[in-house]
Specification:
The protein is built from one helix and no strands. It is mainly alpha-helical.
Length: 57
């Protein structure tokens, strides 16, 4: 690992407007009420199996 430089570099300023470009994107998904329930993820499936095994004991 190297130590700090004795001649530090100046701060780099980007071109005007480059950092302020904004794109509006829709992140929500509408799911109809009559749609089937999605499959549970792996962690949920494992937790359900673990709970079922615990009840059998």
């Amino acid at each position: 690992m190297t130590g700090p430089s004795s001649s530090p570099r100046g701060e780099h300023t980007p071109k005007p407007g480059v950092t302020w470009d904004t794109v509006l994107a829709r992140t929500e998904t509408v799911i109809p009420d009559d749609a089937p329930d999605p499959q549970p993820n792996r962690a949920t499936r494992r937790a359900l199996k673990r709970a079922a095994r615990k009840k059998q004991r």
